[in-house]
Amino acid sequence: MYKFYKTGFRNPNLSFKEKIYNLNLTYFFFIFVLSMIGVLMLYSAANGDWKVWALNHAVRFGMGCLLMGILIFIDIKHFLHYAYYFYAVALVLLVVVEIAGYTGMGATRWINLGFMKLQPSELMKIALVLALAKYFHSTTLQNIETIGGIVPPVVMALVPAALIMAQPDLGTAMMLLFTTAIMLFVVGVQVSKFLFVAVGGAAMLPVAWHFLHDYQKQRVLTFLNPERDPLGAGYHIMQSKIALGSGGIFGKGFMNGTQSHLNFLPEKHTDFIFTMLSEEFGIIGAILVVVLNMLVLFYSYSFAIRTTSYFAKLTIIGLSTNYFLYIFINTAMVLGLIPVVGVPLPLISYGGTVMLSVMASFGIIMAMYVNRDTNLGKD
Amino acid sequence: MNRDNSKGKVLIYRTLIWGAIQLFLFVVIIARLYYLQVFEADKYKTMSDENRISARILVPPRGGIFDRNGVILAGNRQNFQAMIVAEQATNVDDTLAKFKKIMPLSEAEEARVRRDIKKYRRFVPIKLKDGLTWEDVSRILLAAPEMPGVIVEDGLSRAYPFGKQMAHVLGYVAAVSENDMKNDKDPLLETPDFKIGRIGVEKRFEKLLRGKGGNLKLEVNAVGRIMKEIERVDGVPGTNLQLTIDSRLQQKAYDLFGEQSGAAVLMDVNSGEILTFISMPSYDSNDFVLGVNQDTYSRLLFDEKQPLINKAIAGRYSPGSTFKMIVALAALEAGVITPETRFGCSGKMELGNHLFHCWKKQGHGPLNVVEALQHSCDIFFYETAQKVGIDKIANMARRFGMGKPTKLRFDDEKAGIIPDKAWKLENLQAPWQAGETLIAGIGQGYVLTTPIQLAVMTARIANGGKMVEPSLTKVSKSKIEKFKDMKINKKYLDLVKEGMCSVVNRPGGTAFMSQFDYKGQKMCGKTGTTQVRRISMQERQTGIVRQEDLPWKYRNHALFVGFAPQNNPRYAVAVLVEHGGGGSSVAAPIASKLLKEALMLEEGN
């Protein structure tokens, strides 16, 4: 009786129809618009060719929607139940990448599944959020406020982060740690502990510098002074700033970005796509994309507040934080606010793994929201 | 339950804080966008344009140079050049190595190519080799697929069809030096491979011949490939230039000199237009256009006959007996001699402790000024010079254009020296000696003139004392009328002219052998033979060494100045043959043939 009350007093198992009814279509609309902006920008990036990237991007968005749809209709209890298993699988895949991974772009990041390249680090971003959400869902605030209580989640984050760092993929590892830190913050870990780690981290900085790869050191140095080597490492960020700045208020017009189309701008279809958009559509286009993303996040956090169970709230916060980090790191990077770390702009940049990973995140967020009134027990 | 409640509250509270932080970070992003895209937009727009727009200068074709009859003397020839475009070469070293197998490059050439590749932007074609033959072109094009970045272009290069014959008139064009760039801010000079007039007419009329560069704005991509033309402003081609040189006369003079060294200038006595302007031996202007070969250059530089020196304007020589007209005019004007004054010549003359000799050992006997010119008697002019004094002689010489550069305005022209008392005091810090006046009286000693000055002097005598100036370009009638009268008594000029006509046309005249009579038109002139070594007293007693026995550079210079026809003269000529021997035997025949040719050609026109 008690158990029933805990798990399903308020309609524990929604019917398919009820789930559809519970969906938030405005949220999906923002995601859809952002993806279509991506399709348009990729069409421009290929100098007016659908086939190079744009069509593929649209197809991937379609696959992402499918994945999202499947996730929405998975029973919320399963997320809670399988969170640790999912985390374990992701961790194993990371180890596999480390041992027998496919080497591309100078970094080992993928497992070649034949039809697509699986990036376990992306999988881990979601798995870690679910695992941490499950951990904190099951523990008490008292426990959270003790050192012993936060050792398991910190270890859960540090192990995959170390593996990803070794690939080496500094950007993803940093995102993982940031997401974890934010989750620790929101669940109520004392601010003093963060300060302690921050001071300790600052003291460790020279040691960390020693362990950075040369190209990573270059990126940091270049960030600190982009004019240091305008034809070498600083070239990308300098050209990105020129492209952005020259876009002005209204932009140079669709397909008319000179910096992009004359190839001064590197990686215009992936990491620097926001630059290209800002060049062609000016600050108006740039702010539109930023605002759409803010709306996506605003909705996400609203969902978190609206949902009943702690697990659902924390999962949404973790995944949204992850999405926020993508947006912030990418835009801040192309705007020359932080070093170039190789993080794409989700939904707009060309890239299959990230598209599927964020669409899966949105699927899980929606699944949580659909079951907003479900009060989960301790599993 | 309580704890669970507060756990949820903490979560919401902390999430709101985190939300605020995110909002703040988005504001930072938007502020940064505003800063870059609105506040600093202009700066980045400029940088973006600098990135994409490549401005190039369109080099206008250089003006052609023609002779007085429209014969081309300098033009632009199609020049096949092998170039390398660094951005198109996958590996510059590799491409260069392969190219060298087909067309050998000297070390200096390769160094220049590498320097230029660094100097210019990567899409600028850098010259590897020019002046390619059709055969070279086909060999390069065959191998081109293996040498990415190598292209063959046909540009224009300067060509001088007359080569050596016109070298000292035209000069040549050559690569731009740093000094040129300092003095001339025309952006054309900065274009790779631009050629600038280095000497001669090419330099004198550089501005006219060069034209004005055009502008081409191209849109280029990041690697420098041209995407499209944005704007084109065509330049102004160089102006064609017509000279007063007659290529046929020039050819004649060139042939007459043969292997001999020296200079000749033939000009119109009324207008000053120069028809012949030659300095021998010469060099080939074409050798300098594409950068002179080191061997050729050192051979020219160390040749004792100095082919690189324009002797007509930059060679300074004692005028010798050709100076005697000046002495005679100075004396007549000063009144120290009259047309009737006679001096006896015994072959030598004593002044102080020194003995001065006439070229004719046994002497000429008594003669007046006309006869003295005819026989070129030295004693007569020693006496005359002594009476008139150096300052008046110098003054007369200057009125005839000596001692300063002519109005030809060639940078390498020399002034020569017309000495007087003040000059010696200033330059040698010593007082003038009486004996030096005598030496100057026969055009030796300190007196130095250029062949063109001698031609101008002769022209001014021949035209009745008009202050004509030499010119290589057409002189208008109004300008001719503006030549001032030198205010020399016509009687004296006629007397000197009579003396000059006797030199050629009376038996016993020093150039009697060179006379001609072309339809009643005859030549008048004056010979000159100048020593370049001092004859010692001892040598004079034991017998002077014969000219043929001396090394070339110790032999006498031979000079002749003349005009024709004898009445209403039209042409004046000055001929100098370095170490050629006697003025009458070597210089006069050349002058005679040139003047006759000029008269004959005139009729043909």
Annotation keywords:
heterodimer; A: 379 residues; mainly alpha; three-stranded antiparallel sheet; 71% helix; globular; disordered N terminus; B: 605 residues; alpha+beta; Penicillin-binding protein 2a (Domain 2); Beta-lactamase; 2 domains; five-stranded antiparallel sheet; 24 helices; 20% strand; elongated
Characterise the protein shown here.
The complex is a heterodimer of chains A (379) and B (605). Chain A is an all-alpha fold and 379 residues long. Chain A has one domain (2-370). Chain A contains 16 helices and 3 strands. Chain A has a 3-stranded antiparallel sheet with strand order 1-2-3. In chain A, a hairpin with a 2-residue loop joins strand 1 (102-104) and strand 2. Chain A starts with a helix and ends in a 9-residue tail after the last helix. Residues 1-10 of chain A have low confidence and may be disordered. The model of chain B has no long low-confidence stretch (mean pLDDT 90). Chain B folds into 2 domains: 55-241, Penicillin-binding protein 2a (Domain 2); 247-284 and 308-604, DD-peptidase/beta-lactamase superfamily (Beta-lactamase), CATH 3.40.710. Chain B has 24 helices and 21 strands. Chain B is an alpha+beta fold and 605 residues long. In chain B, strands 2, 3, 4, 5 and 10 form a 5-stranded mixed sheet that branches. In chain B, a hairpin with a 5-residue loop joins strand 8 (214-220) and strand 9.
